[in-house]
Design goal:
Elements lengths: L1 H15 L6 H14 L3 H28 L1 H4 L8 H11 L4 H51 L2 H6 L2 H25 L2 H19 L3 H13 L1 H34 L1 H6 L3 H50 L4 H42 L21 E8 L13 E8 L4 E5 L6 H7 L8 E6 L2 E2 L5 H6 L1 E4 L10 H6 L7 H10 L3 H6 L17 H15 L3 E5 L7 H15 L3 E5 L11 E6 L2 E6 L1 H7 L1 H10 L3
Parallel strand pairs: 3-8, 3-9, 6-7, 7-8
Antiparallel strand pairs: 1-2, 1-4, 4-5, 9-10
Helix pairs in contact: 1-2, 3-6, 6-8, 8-11, 8-14, 9-10, 9-14, 10-13, 10-14, 11-13, 11-14, 13-14, 18-20, 20-21, 22-23
The chain binds adenosine-5'-triphosphate.
The site of adenosine-5'-triphosphate has 14 residues, from helix 15.
Protein name: ABC transporter ATP-binding protein
InterPro entries: AAA+_ATPase, ABC1_TM_dom, ABC1_TM_sf, ABC_transporter-like_ATP-bd, ABC_transporter-like_CS, P-loop_NTPase, Type_1_exporter
Subcellular location: Cell membrane
């Protein structure tokens, strides 16, 4: 039964959306089943407890009232003969007092059981919801972790956060909704319809009952009309919630820019505009949801009135008519409730789709099925006719970021990348750890295309020091240890010493145990860089990519960072994106980039003589 119910629910979700055809049902089910499966036993147990509760309150109590209570008030003939006989057999002729005692004990027990069922029903169904939520969030997060950089560039952080937090929560609440009505209401509908059919077959009033029953499917008309609109609005609300989260994240991440440019009011206006849009769209969804009930009631009333007219004309008696009217009403009620459920499913389908977008996002740079082994020692890195266009620029007809790059970097060599802003230096560096794959051409290591290597193993060989190193909100020691998570304290300290960071770390009151604050805000720019360099020392990888900070450090910091770098690059293949010409002294070879091409390749002193763009850049940086 469980699987069937699941299928029905999935089926409802599937049938609801214009984008999903029946052919998708199976794949959607396959996709969601592993996430639902762990919570399934709790859901079934919760539903069974719900059935127990309904039986004890809907059947147990009335039965007790009708079959036992009359005995205590001298109306034995109205009580159940079965109970009377059992009482006599057990307690003799004057059984009433003993039975009263038993009933007075029994009622609290019934209530206790009923209460226990209510508790278990609520507890297990909520547990199912939370287990599902946990699995869903974990799966979405794991998927996000595995996706390439291009995915992150196409989605805003706040929007992704909102999907993981708000949309996942929406789906959890769906479980609670579905478990309340999805089983109870269809059962009620079947029971009421069964009764109607039975009476109409035995009472010769089939005509008017059937006419009234025909109106039940008509209730589906407003349902279909409204739910289609509802889904559109729900999608827009979910999208706007993502936008809202993005505005919040951006605002909270950049207080310095906002305050220095006095952008507070602009930010507040942007936030308020999003809030207002959400309010407008949410009201529309509420409007459609709220219109469903009255529409179904209206159709039901029309049906009942037709039934009344035909019934009276055919001479039906009052008692039969009222019982049929009650049964009809009972048949409409589940239709109304199920309509509400359908509406709730629709409004959550938007969340389902937004999470599905993450869960099914294609890894555009998958690991090879059978990776080629990495060459044992350090090997040359070769770019062969590499052309690269950022995926988000491919439609705009933009010029490629790299255009026909052919170059070889020998093992142990230090190469500085120089060129005007936007010339392609960072892009060149990003292709080496395979953050992106070339659009045309290939990048090889020791002759093997990077696409044929195991991504993890390849990245283990590279230490990357970005322009603005990210520090996590934990201790300095832990931040350095990211370079090699199994490193002991002594190795962490040694790395800090070689990076020229030990001195300032030890001067802090809590030393290596100092928590650096979100994004390392508790440290200066130069200190953050030296921690990132310590990380690279600890990783001790044969290939080093250094994206030098553009912001100028004070000369003491700069000298310390330079000294640390000089030590770090020794014996490694180093690609240095040089924003400050002082660092070029670290390199024996310079590649000059212009508009995605390499226009100069040679020792810095030769280029200073022969390459006009290089010479101009050099002069721009010279003091005075
Ligand atoms: N994530 C991105 N999405 C789309 N285009 C990008 C992206 N990053 C860079 N570009 C574009 O690619 C080109 C090369 O940029 P790149 O960052 O490689 O230049 P750069 O030489 O490192 O510049 P800078 O010295 O200013 O850092 C530029 O035209 C830039 O606008």
């Amino acid at each position: 039964m469980g699987t069937h119910e699941q299928r029905t629910r999935e089926g409802t979700l599937m049938a609801a959306g214009p984008r999903w055809g029946l052919a998708d049902t199976d794949s959607r089910l396959r996709r969601w089943w592993p996430l639902v499966r762990p919570s399934w036993p709790y859901l079934v147990a919760g539903l069974l407890a719900g059935v127990g509760f309904a039986a004890l309150s809907g059947v147990g109590l009335p039965v007790m009232l009708k079959t036992v209570l009359p005995i205590f008030f001298g109306r034995e003939q109205e009580a159940s003969p079965w109970v009377v006989a059992a009482g006599r057999r057990l307690f003799g002729e004057h059984y009433q007092d003993r039975l009263l005692l038993l009933a007075c004990w029994g009622m609290p027990v019934v209530f206790l059981l009923r209460g226990l069922c209510a508790f278990l029903n609520r507890y297990w169904i909520n547990l199912a919801g939370f287990v599902f939520l946990e699995n869903l969030r974990r799966a979405a997060f794991e998927k996000l972790q595995s996706l390439p950089l291009a995915f992150y560039q196409q989605h805003r952080t706040g929007d992704l956060t909102s999907r993981l937090v708000n949309d996942a929560e929406q789906l959890r609440s769906l479980i609670l909704l579905v478990s309340n009505d999805a089983i109870k209401q269809p059962l009620l509908l079947v029971a009421a319809l069964g009764y109607l059919v039975w009476v109409s077959a035995t009472e010769r009033s089939a005509l008017f009952t059937l006419v009234a029953m025909v109106t039940i499917p008509l209730c589906v008309v407003p349902l279909r009309l409204m739910t289609r609109r509802l889904l559109r609005r729900a999608r827009a609300v979910a999208r706007q919630s993502g936008e809202l989260a993005a505005v919040v994240t951006e605002a909270l991440q950049s207080p310095v820019e906002i305050q220095s440019y006095n952008l507070q009011e602009l930010q507040c206006r942007r936030f308020a505009a999003r809030l207002h849009e959400i309010l407008r769209l949410s009201l529309k969804t509420v409007k459609y949801e709220a219109m469903l009930g009255p529409s179904v009631e209206f159709i039901a009333t029309c049906g009942l009135m037709v039934a009344l007219y035909l019934g009276v004309r055919s001479g039906i008696d009052f008692a039969t008519f009222s019982s049929l009217a009650l049964a009809l009403y009972l048949a409409y009620d589940p239709v109304k409730k199920l309509s509400g459920l359908q509406a709730a499913l629709k409004s959550r389908q938007a969340s389902l789709e937004r999470l599905e977008e993450i869960l099914t996002a294609r890894d555009t740079m998958p690991n090879p099925v059978t990776p080629r082994p990495l060459p044992p020692g350090n090997a040359p890195i070769r770019f062969e006719q590499v052309r690269f266009l950022y995926p988000n620029r491919s439609e705009s007809g933009a010029a490629p970021a790299l255009n026909g790059i052919t170059v070889c970097i020998e093992p142990g060599e230090t190469v500085a990348l120089v060129g005007p802003s936007g010339a392609g230096k960072s892009t060149f560096a990003l292709l080496i750890p395979r953050f992106f794959d070339p659009t045309e051409g290939r990048v090889t290591y020791g002759g093997t295309d990077l696409r044929e290597l195991d991504k993890r193993a390849w990245r283990d060989r590279i230490a990357f020091v970005p322009q603005m190193p990210m520090l996590f909100n934990t201790t300095i020691a832990e931040n350095i240890r990211l370079g090699r998570p199994d490193a002991d304290d002594a190795a962490v300290r040694e790395a800090a010493r070689r990076a020229g960071a030990a001195e300032f770390i030890e001067a802090l009151p809590r030393g290596y145990e100092t928590v650096v604050g979100e994004q390392g805000t508790a440290l200066s720019g130069g200190q953050r860089q030296r921690i990132a360099i310590a990380r690279a020392f600890l990783k001790d990888a044969p290939i080093l990519i250094l994206d030098e900070a553009t912001s100028a450090l004070d000369s003491e910091s700069e000298a310390r960072v330079q000294a640390a770098l000089r030590e770090l690059i020794r014996g490694r293949t180093t690609i240095l994106i040089a924003h400050r010409f002082s660092s070029i002294s670290l390199a024996r070879r310079v590649l000059v980039f212009e508009e995605g091409r390499i226009t100069g390749d040679g020792p810095p002193e030769v280029l200073a003589e022969t390459h006009p763009v290089y010479r101009r850049l050099l002069e721009l940086q010279r003091p005075g």
